[in-house]
Write a structure and sequence with these properties.
Strand content: 15-25%
Structural class: alpha/beta
Oligomer: single chain
Helix content: 40-55%
Distance between the termini: 32 Å
Order of helices and strands: HEEHEEEHEHEHHEHEHEHEHE
Shape: elongated
Strand order of the largest sheet: 6-11-10-9-8-7
Low-confidence stretches: none
Length: about 280
């Protein structure tokens, strides 16, 4: 992993999590003789997609740097119940202190990757690509975006700084789609520019304004299909607004380029992981 922004985020995530959890010290672990060693094994109790290895490594390094970790999986691997994810040898105190922080990261990110893979698999027979949103857990934006990629999804913009997404209120404040787009192009011509539309008149206006992507906000399946034909690949189209596992296939089969789903990051069921000392 060489992305400096992600490496910095991992370090910040781990430091914040350990400060929150360990504080002035692990009083329960202090009951264990400081020279006692242990072998720990982490398994999954359910099927899913593994994600979170860099966060586990960074947590262990911060708490018990002399420990040795042996990985059985890599990020993006599919898991089956009872499967061993990794094993650790080290001082028992350190392993106990690191346990919850390591598992919290791995459970959340594996849950995000698992949800993403479930949606991505549903539309794998189409050319539509699954996008995430900014509906992430505060402080864990880059972590969850990473998990989405591990699950087979594609990142939308990371934040408010790396792409334009002009919505209803932006357009109202600017006066029109054309005015908003013109100002955006003048301000940062190299940034990707997407406009949200609510009807076909706005779709035509956005295309005429020369946007890169049009977000079809709460268009139903038939309207989406019509928008795909009407646009005829002049711009990319994204479907958005309340899509879930029951509806995503029908929208993908319209030929829309992207579908964004907030549920893959905001309604995550953490994967059930367990760590046990085995000797």
């Amino acid at each position: 992993m060489t992305d400096p922004n992600l490496l910095a985020a991992i370090d910040a995530n781990v430091r914040a999590a350990l400060t929150e959890d360990v504080g002035a010290g692990d009083v329960s672990a202090s009951l264990i003789d400081p020279l006692t060693t242990a072998h720990a094994r982490v398994i999954t109790r359910e099927a899913g997609v593994w994600c979170g290895r860099p966060w586990v490594d960074a947590t262990l390094l911060a708490v018990e740097p002399a420990a040795r970790i042996h990985w059985h999986v890599k990020d993006g691997d599919r898991l089956e119940p009872g499967m061993a994810c990794f094993e650790i040898d080290g001082l028992a105190r350190g392993l106990l202190t690191a346990e919850r922080t390591m598992l919290n990261f791995a459970q959340l990110l594996s849950g995000t990757a698992t949800a993403t893979r479930r949606y991505a698999d549903l539309i794998a027979h189409t050319s539509t690509r699954l996008l995430d949103t900014r509906k992430t857990i505060p402080g864990l934006r880059l972590a969850q975006k990473y998990a989405v990629r591990c699950g087979g999804g594609v990142n939308h913009r990371i934040g408010l700084y790396d792409a334009f997404l002009l919505k209803e209120n932006h357009i109202a404040a600017a006066g029109s789609i054309a005015a908003a787009v013109g100002r955006a192009r003048a301000l940062a011509p190299d940034l990707k520019l997407e406009v949200e539309v609510e009807n076909f008149a706005q779709l035509d206006e956005a295309i005429d304004a020369g946007v890169d992507i049009v977000m079809l906000d709460n268009f139903d399946v038939e309207a989406t299909r019509e928008a795909v034909g009407r646009t005829n690949r002049r711009v990319a189209l994204e479907s958005s607004g309340g899509l879930d596992e029951r509806t995503i296939v029908a929208f993908a089969e319209t030929g829309v380029d992207y579908i964004s789903v907030g549920n893959i990051t905001k309604q995550v069921m953490p994967l059930d992981l367990s760590m046990r000392f085995t000797g």
